[in-house]
Model the fold of this input.
Amino acid sequence: MAKKHILVVDDEEDILELVRYNLEREGFHVLCAASGEEALRIAAETSLDIIILDLMLSGIDGLEVTRRLKKSSRTQFIPIVMLTAKGEESDIVTGLELGADDYVTKPFSPRVLTARIRAVVRRLEKDRDAPERTITLPHLTIDLARRAAAVDGRRVELTFTEFEVLSFLAKRPGWVFTRTQIVDAVRGDHYPVTDRSVDVQIVGLRRKLDPYGHCIETVRGVGYRFAELE
Done:
């Protein structure tokens, strides 16, 4: 894995130093910013691979930083991993819907954070290199061209919407998506469907993917993700 450039943004000096030390020890090149304003400046001037962003910043907060990064053609494709305090479910949902890619709650283990960052890197490299016609995961194959899914070689009959939801989640195993993101990806922006409708599709998918239905995980208060199966 090539050396990745990471920007860590947090207004607590102790956390900045802790994250910087652990990521550099793991072979990453690390830049630090203590404010949203500084983060935006660095992101505009530097080539970055990932941004680790605290949501609770003084001045320009993490959500506004995310919004501005995703609006800029220079920075819109940089993955963002949010650092959040426990209980900030609404902020997590908002951040994901603004375009953040993942989140880690405080207090966190540096080893867990490093593992999540490496997972983001793997997903990005896999997305870049893999063809889009077929999704192949342990126990599951999804043929996008034929709109066919199979579990351990056994064809699974899915409705149109179930197939779209499954394909969307399975393209990025481990990534958390809100119900709104799922609806927008499957039907387009502003499709009039409720959160409950998404939940019903997930229940149907879990039943049809048996015995691997558990691979579609509920992230409480946020949404769903497809587990990274071994």
Notes: The helical segments are 13-25, 36-45, 62-71, 89-98, 110-129, 160-170, 179-187, 195-208. The chain has eight helices and twelve strands. The longest strand covers residues 80-85.
